[in-house]
């Protein structure tokens, strides 16, 4: 039985994964660390501090705590600049009908995001009120692939993990869903998201019938 669908935000409901990439890329360029879109696949779903540390490690850089703080603030300021004009028009096609179909089934809708900016983005997209519970990076200690944020979302929804489906575009996110004991749905490349039970190229291609079939 399915009782809840728990969504990732960045790259699943809207194209913020691209803006995160642009902002990390600018920072890596400044640090003279080579950073490609392929590298970025490893960072999708990973929180701010661990992403910075991944880039620093790639460049053989050792950062002090103060430098980490400064660079994270710089990346976030750039990211906020990139997303400041976001509006409901930036919601991916297919999200609204999918949410309506989920509600019609009586299933709950949750969010499990690694971003500290999740509430701001939901607000900009005009979908904050659609969620029965929102879990984000402000409430958890352990970043995806740790299951903490998905488990928190399930607990907040009052649904046991076995009755939840998680929807993710990140390798780390699919791992987190599996570790949480939920059924994983991937958005993106099947080859990259091989652990997922079902992979669709974008959320518009995900139907309620496909979700129901995972029960
Ligand atoms: C994740 C994104 O959702 O949030 C990552 O996939 C991003 O790309 C991470 O780095 C942290 O986001 P923020 O907004 O807290 O810096
Ligand atoms: Mg994502």
From TrEMBL:
Its cofactor is Mg(2+). One of its GO terms (molecular function) is beta-phosphoglucomutase activity. Keywords: Carbohydrate metabolism, Isomerase, Magnesium, Metal-binding, Phosphoprotein. CDD domains: HAD_BPGM (cd02598). It comes from the Bacteria. It catalyses: beta-D-glucose 1-phosphate = beta-D-glucose 6-phosphate. The keyword Phosphoprotein applies. Its EC number is 5.4.2.6. The keyword Cell membrane does not apply. Belongs to the HAD-like hydrolase superfamily. CbbY/CbbZ/Gph/YieH family. PANTHER family: 6-PHOSPHOGLUCONATE PHOSPHATASE (PTHR46193), HEXITOL PHOSPHATASE B (PTHR46193:SF18). This is Beta-phosphoglucomutase. It comes from Alkalimonas delamerensis. The lineage of its organism: Bacteria, Pseudomonadati, Pseudomonadota, Gammaproteobacteria, Alkalimonas. The gene is pgmB.
